[in-house]
Amino acid sequence: MKWMRFKIRTTSAAEDILVSAMTDIGLYGAQIEDHVPLTAQEKEEMFVDILPDEPDDDGSAVLSFYVEEAPDGTLLLEDNSTDSAALSGGSLYSASQDGSEKAARKVTPEAMKKAIENKVKELKSFSDVIGDGTVTIEETEDIDWINSWKQYFHQFWIDDILVIPSWEKPADTGKKPAVTFHIDPGTAFGTGAHETTQLCIREIRRHLTKDTVLLDVGTGSGILSILSLLLGAKKAVGTDLDPMAVPAIKENLEHNGIEQERFPVILGNLVNDKKVQDEVGYDAYDIVVANILPDVLVPLTPAAVRALKPGGWYITSGIVAGREGEVSEAMREAGIIGISEIAQGEWRCVAGRKPRRFQAQ
What we know:
Rossmann fold; seven-stranded mixed β-sheet; alpha/beta; 29% strand; seven-stranded antiparallel β-sheet
C-alpha cells in the first residue's frame, strides 16, 4: 500500500489550529515534529537509557498528513469533510473492505495540495502565528515498522550469557552458554546490548544467590529480572510507569519458560507514590536494581533503600561518566555503605550495601 504525505511548515503555536482546520478537507491525525521542550512528566515517562540531546526550540514545526493512494494515483478520502467544495476535481464513489456501502471521495494529489494551501492561506488572513505555511508532498510506502527493525538486532553475548531474539536460532560457535536468554524486546524497550544493562547484570551476578528476591525499578521489558531468575534468583518484582511493560514482560517470560507468579509487575512511581511504595514493601529485597538516569536515581534512592533488606545491595546504572558522584552522594545520604563505582566505556554503575543494623534516614 502506498500513501501520499502532505507536509506543512508552520510554527508550534499553530499546530492545534492547523490540525483542526485540516479536518474540514478530510485530513485526520497529524504527525507533529517540533522542538518544544519536554515537560517533567514527559521526561519521566520516556523509557530510554539516556534522553536525547534536542536542538533549541526555535518555534518551528512540521505537520505531516497521510492519505492512502489508489493504484491509479488518486487519493482515497472518506467523504465526511465539511468543506467538500474545497476539493475541486474530486469524484464520489462507494467502497469498503467488508463489502458494505461507504461514501468516499477520490481526488488528485494536486487537488489536495491546492486545498491545503487554500486552507493555510485562509488561516493566515486572520492569524499571525501560521508562519511559513509551505506545503510539500511526497510518496511513501506502507512499511511494517514494527518488524522491519528486527534485521538490525541479532544474538550477542554478555560474558557467558547468550542473548538471542525470539526469531533467531543459536549460532553454532562451539561456545556453550551458562544461560540462554530469549528476548522479544518490541519497539518500546531495550535489548540488553547497552553498556548500562551489562554493568547491572555483572553486578547482580556478584551478589545473587538461590534465595535472592530482587526489585527491578523501571523494569521495561524485564531484562534484568528475567536474567536474574534464569541465573537462579528466587523471585523478582518489577515497577514501571509504562503500561506497555506488562505485555512485553509477559511475552519474554513465556519465551524463557518462567511462570508469571515469579515476576509480578507493579505500575506506578516508586519515587513519590506511597501506594506503590506500600505495595512494593519495606525491608523486603536482597537486591534493588535501577537502570534509569541520575535525575531519577537521586530522588529514587531513599525509597529504594527503604525497600532493601538490611545487608541488601542497591545497584544503579544509566549514569554517564561525570555524574556518578551525584548518585554516590545520594546513596551515602540514604545510609548506603561500601559504595563502589564500575565503568564500561562512557557509562558507570554505582552500587552499595544497606548496613545490617540500619538506622532509617
